[in-house]
Amino acid sequence: MLKRGIILLLLAAILAGNALCNAMDNVTTITASEDVYISMGENRVSVYNQTEVLLCAVDGTGNGTEMIRYPGAPVIQFNISGLNITDNDVAILVLKAASMQTLGDPVMVALMSMGSDWNESSDYTTFLVNILPAWDIIKKNDATAMSCNTDGDRIFAFDVSKKLRDAREKGDKISFLLEAISNSSAEISFLSRESGQGPCLVIMPYPISTPDLTMPPNLTLNSSLQTNQTTIISENMSQIEQQTDTPTALQTILAGRLLSNESIE
């Protein structure tokens, strides 16, 4: 019996290991091909490339009494020319923050799709033209076209499944604009691709749950165990039947129940 249990455990471990390997084989990762951050002040726009961090910052109270400025808005591009994504796939954009600074208020990072006709050497006018689709989303306050992250830790993840499918139908690139939102000034420094831990797309099929592997289907109990249990039960019943002269506690309880039922009748 012990050997049989060990064999079943080993089989379960092998099956679980194979399932994990197959799942890992189906995961696709795409690192950013271009990334910069743009500083948008009142009358000036600057582009910063080839930096170790992508600054995502907001400066202002947001209560309408002063102009809100964006000292940093990351712009990220991915090459998706070899990607085959289906409706059953999940796509997540992940970024790692090197540091975060706030004045105590929560900070949210919103992600929006934008044009992809740019590279790290483009001038600010080219970026402004490509950012227009994202600004239209902000102007319309269209939450359905935004992805947000508000966890508060240093790993930021955004669901971009539909955005990626739509972009793949149109071309071979996809770009995103990130914007910090807070009731007070806040600053997040994301690691760029130059750091080796930059933005990354993770694509995989939606996981399918598997049945419990602890008891394989159609598995019957050990026949010798069934026989032993049947013998023990028969012996116990014989012992109870033989104790007719001295009532046991069980017999007393059963007798009491019979008397109670007779009384009710």
| CATH architecture designation of the largest domain | Sandwich
What's the CATH first level of the largest domain? Answer: Mainly Beta
By CATH, the topology of the largest domain is Jelly Rolls
Number of domains: 2
Number of separate helices? 5
Specify the structural class. Answer: alpha+beta
Biggest pleated-sheet summary = 12 strands, antiparallel
User: What is the global morphology?
Assistant: globular
Strand content: 25-35%
The H-and-E topology, N to C, reads as: HEEEEEEEHEEHEEEHH
Task: Summarize, please.
The protein has 265 residues and is of the alpha+beta class.
How would you explain this protein's 3D organization?
- The protein is of the alpha+beta class and 265 residues long.
- The chain is 33% helix and 32% strand.
- It is globular, with a radius of gyration of 33 Å.
- 23% of the residues are buried.
- The C terminus is likely disordered.
Write the SSE topology.
Layout: H1 2-25, E1 28-31, E2 34-40, E3 45-48, E4 53-59, E5 69-79, E6 89-102, E7 107-114, H2 124-140, E8 147-149, E9 155-159, H3 161-170, E10 173-182, E11 186-191, E12 200-205, H4 223-242, H5 249-264
Features:
single chain; alpha+beta; Jelly Rolls; twelve-stranded antiparallel beta sheet; 5 helices; 12 strands; 32% strand; globular
